[in-house]
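Contributing new records

If you add data, match the layout below exactly. Sequence lines come first and carry their own label; structure lines follow with theirs. Keep one chain per record. Anything else will be rejected by the validation script.
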Amino acid sequence: MIPLNKIAYNHLKELIKKNKLSYNETYSETKLARELGISRTPLRDAVHRLAQEGYIDIIPNKGFMLHQITEKDINETFELRSALEIYCTLQICKEFKTKKAQDLFKSLRTDMEDMFKILNTSKSIEEFCEYDFKFHVKMINYLDNDQFSSIFSSLMYKMRTLAILSLSHEGRMEDTYNEHLEILNAMEKGDLAHIYEITLIHMEVPKGINLNDL
């Protein structure tokens, strides 16, 4: 049986992802709990979890609102991503000849093929974004570092929101594909001399786009 707080969390998260909630409205925990047919306690647990993950902002004694992305969000998100992903790509480069790394490269190549198909067919930002983050999650998880994976997962909502905004710019989807390809090529070659700069560029370019949009 699924815990009530998990049901509430999944319900609210789905509403947010499907744009069913408005940025200009304050939502009542009591009302939402009543609509779901549960008490406020599991609903409140779900709300606090979503706030920690950056989906919403809690308004004391009133409820919650959808979180509006700020300049601070953009800077902090990309700074954390850069720190994590640059370290991961460096470590992968050091192990590029191992079976573990070779298996990763094979999996990433498959993701790249799927991204290429989307680029040349539907050009769906949502679909492209799915494979975009599969690529990054696999690199993060390669190290088997639970803390790294947890931090990256906690950033997912903000990362996806920012990615969708930057990918909506003309040519950015193609550039993202090419940047991924450069990262993968460098890792496959064990190119320690250039992987830092290549990975950093992939962080700095969309960061600049997001900041300009803001």
